[in-house]
Design goal:
The complex is a heterodimer of chains A (194) and B (152).
Chain A: H1 5-15, H2 19-39, H3 44-61, H4 71-90, H5 104-128, H6 132-141, H7 149-156, H8 160-176, H9 178-186
Chain B: H1 8-24, H2 27-35, E1 45-52, H3 53-57, E2 71-76, E3 81-86, E4 91-96, E5 101-107, E6 110-117, E7 122-125, E8 134-139, E9 144-147
Parallel strand pairs in B: 1-9
Antiparallel strand pairs in B: 1-2, 2-3, 3-4, 4-7, 5-6, 5-8, 8-9
Chain lengths: 194, 152
């Protein structure tokens, strides 16, 4: 993920004024900006303000971006700084400036959200490569709360008895997706679970 | 494939997290991010919102005074502060440090109007834009400052 050639290409094209490349960058990283803002419990209007500042700073930053691989980290840190600025301005809390803090927890927020974002991106990419049937089944099972087996059976025209084996088979395909191999080898990181 | 790493349940939990987080992000948040690209040709210092009198209105203990009827906003960059007062017929502004120049109001749909900034850093922009806009202040010494969005 960190040396994703797609991101390098998108950054280069956006820098040269390609609007489609910019749109793709925003699609990719808006969830990261969003999730960092959520850590600061900002109101919707404030999240919109922070988002605008982050995107404009990114546009400004694109020409000087030497390592596109560092982009997610830059976005998370910039978002955190803009959240801090807004919170300080509104005096609703007395937050610690991430840039001045020696507190590991403050630094960890950006890093954690970058890792979560990477993991989610990889999982969604691997999911997109599955067969339609596996995608439908896993999407139903991944709902919260999970869709009951009799409902799945009705929607997918699958015998109830074959849902369990299909679940295992589809998850195994997901697990074997090349992008996921690295993540799976590491196992689920307890730090990263909500 | 060695049987290490995530169990089926753990993998399904991770997938649930990945699929729902993407759905949680509002479309208009993403669209506003895409629209920001239109501002890339403006080489400006960003002045972020640091005060909005509307914030005070949210505090239940605030005693409303006459002056609270007008909305005031403050935007600040590293070197500049812009104080704005929104009156019914004009956007009044004060640039600090004071410097002459011009101010433009611009939204996604184009420019709303322009006004001169006098030697004392003061400006009055008329009429008040009717859709969301940003102010672009260009000083005679060549600095351009872009404020955050102002919603009428």
């Amino acid at each position: 993920m960190r040396d994703d050639p797609t991101v390098v290409g998108l950054v280069t094209r956006a820098r040269d004024g390609d609007k489609d490349a910019w749109d793709e960058l925003v699609e990719r990283y808006a969830p990261l900006v969003w999730s960092v803002c959520r850590r600061y419990r900002l109101a919707q209007a404030d999240v919109d303000d922070v988002g605008q500042s982050v995107w404009l700073r990114l546009i400004e930053h694109l020409p000087g971006l030497r390592e596109p691989a560092a982009l997610p980290g830059w976005i998370a840190t910039t978002t955190q700084r803009e959240c801090f600025r807004l919170l300080r301005a509104t005096s609703r809390v007395e937050p610690v400036d991430p840039a001045e803090s020696h507190d590991v927890a403050v630094h960890a927020i950006a890093e954690e959200e970058v890792l979560r974002h990477e993991r989610r991106t990889i999982l969604r990419a691997a999911f997109a490569e599955l067969s339609r049937q596996c995608q439908k089944l896993l999407a139903l099972l991944a709902q919260d709360p999970p869709t009951p087996y009799d409902e799945i059976s009705r929607q997918l025209s699958l015998p109830i008895g074959s849902i369990g084996p299909n679940r295992a088979r589809c998850l195994n395909r997901l697990r074997r997706a090349p992008a996921l191999a690295l993540l799976v080898a590491g196992g689920p990181d307890e730090e990263l679970r909500r | 494939m060695p049987d290490i790493g995530w169990s089926d349940d753990e993998l399904l939990d991770a997938l649930r997290d990945a699929l729902t987080t993407a759905d949680d992000v509002p479309r208009n948040f993403v669209d506003a991010g895409k629209a920001a690209f239109a501002w890339r040709t403006i080489d400006a210092e960003l002045a972020a919102l640091t005060y909005d009198s509307a914030w005070d209105a949210l505090e239940p203990v605030t005693v409303r005074s006459e002056s609270a009827m007008l909305r005031s906003l403050t935007f600040a960059s590293e070197g500049w502060t812009i104080e704005i007062e929104l009156t019914p017929d004009a956007v009044l502004g004060q640039l600090d440090p004071a410097e002459a120049g011009t101010v433009r109001a611009r939204g996604d749909g184009g420019e709303f109007g322009t006004a001169a900034i006098d030697d004392l850093g003061f400006f009055a922009l008329r009429p008040v834009p009717t859709a969301p806009y940003r102010l672009i202040c260009t000083t005679t010494s060549g600095t351009t400052i872009l404020t955050g969005w102002i919603t009428p």
